């Protein structure tokens, strides 16, 4: 018998879980070769991890979390591919995984729309697909695991409105990759959060594609165009750190306040940047790597039939008051 998902009729939009079983069943009969092995303990499973861009520190930590968690599951082998922020390469990476006969796909899409088709292709072949961190369009996947980016953005906005800039001020926004769902959702949430303080004005928004060096160059240009910036809302910590470096080069690092998102518990992460005074705050965005492997174990080893369609990871606001404690509690090493 082959690993499977049962066909769900009438779209079953009220269901919060997908169904997995022990054989592939599709509308119209057998689909041919199935890449997934029969579920159960004592078996070997090949998991393909399709990463959007290993150059981002967040994704390096995600890969480590996936690999570390997988080592604790007998029979799990994880192969990681790096799309290097290239949609076409990521599609090719997934196609390559399918040709290798993976038993399960974990994917963190570079951008939503370009990766939707190949994710659906894997899912339609009966391969369990866990979409991690960034979403695809539609619901042709087994499960999504990630933070609530609108809520995180809103929490950041409320922090600006009530604590960071209670008297108002000019804010520049350095955003993530335009086609990625976190960028759109963090922008939306931030605007919802600052709505209670009409004296806060977003005077410029520009993408730095999640990268520190681009955050620095973008901020350098913004400082020339907007000399009276009060604060920088960056969609992740590396871009916030890049913006800080640009401000420091212009002699304005103490006049401008910086916040980011991710709060990685590593020496080069946002928590330490807050603790050391470069950032005023960061907001935790868990990688979901361990949770993805836990779910993969339930599907492949435990043969769990019903798994959550969506799992939302929690967040934490980190300022200088709780940075040291948060670093320890989130597993940071000294």
pLDDT below 50 for ≥5 consecutive residues: which ranges? 1-37
Q: Describe the strand arrangement of the main beta sheet, using strand numbers.
A: 4-3-5-6-7-14
Q: Return the CATH topology of the largest domain.
A: Rossmann fold
Percent range for β-strand residues = 15-25%
Distance between the termini: 49 Å
Helical stretch count? Answer: 10
Assembly annotation: single chain
| Biggest pleated sheet | 6 strands, parallel
How many domain units?
2
Query: What is the CATH C-level name of the largest domain?
Result: Alpha Beta
Structural description of this entry:
With 334 residues, the chain is an alpha/beta fold. It has helices at 57-71, 87-100, 112-124, 149-164, 181-194, 212-225, 237-249, 270-275, 289-300, 323-329; strands at 4-5, 17-21, 45-51, 76-82, 104-107, 129-132, 143-147, 169-175, 200-207, 231-234, 257-262, 281-284, 306-308, 310-313, 317-318. It has a 6-stranded parallel beta sheet with strand order 4-3-5-6-7-14, sandwiched between helices. Strands 9-8-10-11-12-15 form a 6-stranded mixed beta sheet, sandwiched between helices. The protein is elongated.
Give a brief description:
This protein is an alpha/beta fold.
Spell out the key features of this protein.
334 residues; alpha/beta; Rossmann fold; 2 domains; six-stranded parallel sheet; six-stranded mixed sheet; 37% helix; disordered N terminus
């Amino acid at each position: 018998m082959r690993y499977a998902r049962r066909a769900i009729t009438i779209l079953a939009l009220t269901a919060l879980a997908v169904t997995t079983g022990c054989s592939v069943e599709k509308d119209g009969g057998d689909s041919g070769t199935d890449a997934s092995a029969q579920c159960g303990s004592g078996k070997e499973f090949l998991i393909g991890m399709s990463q959007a861009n290993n150059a981002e520190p967040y994704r390096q930590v995600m890969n480590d979390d996936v690999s570390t968690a997988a080592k604790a599951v007998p029979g799990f082998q994880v192969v990681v591919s790096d799309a290097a922020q290239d949609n076409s390469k990521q599609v090719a990476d997934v196609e390559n995984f399918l040709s290798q006969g993976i038993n399960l796909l974990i994917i963190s899409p570079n951008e939503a729309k370009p990766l939707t088709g190949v994710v659906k292709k894997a899912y339609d072949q009966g391969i369990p697909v866990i979409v991690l961190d960034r979403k695809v369009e539609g619901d042709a996947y087994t499960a999504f695991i990630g933070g609530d980016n609108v809520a995180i953005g809103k929490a950041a906005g409320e922090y600006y409105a009530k604590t960071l800039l209670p008297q108002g001020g000019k804010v520049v926004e350095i955003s993530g990759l335009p086609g990625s769902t976190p960028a759109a959702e963090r922008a939306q949430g931030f605007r919802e959060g600052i709505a209670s303080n009409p004296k806060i004005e977003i005077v410029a928004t520009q993408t730095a594609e999640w990268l520190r060096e681009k955050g620095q160059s973008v901020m350098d240009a913004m400082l020339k165009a907007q000399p009276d910036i009060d604060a920088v809302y960056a969609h992740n910590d590396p871009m916030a750190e890049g913006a800080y470096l640009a401000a420091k080069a212009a002699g304005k690092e103490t006049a401008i306040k910086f916040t980011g998102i991710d709060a990685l518990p590593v020496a080069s992460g946002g928590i330490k940047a807050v603790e050391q005074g470069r950032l005023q705050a960061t907001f935790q965005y868990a990688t979901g790597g361990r949770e993805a492997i836990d779910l993969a174990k339930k599907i492949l080893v435990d043969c769990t039939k019903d798994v959550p369609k969506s799992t939302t990871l929690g967040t934490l606001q980190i300022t200088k008051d709780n940075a040291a404690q948060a670093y320890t509690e989130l597993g940071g090493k000294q």
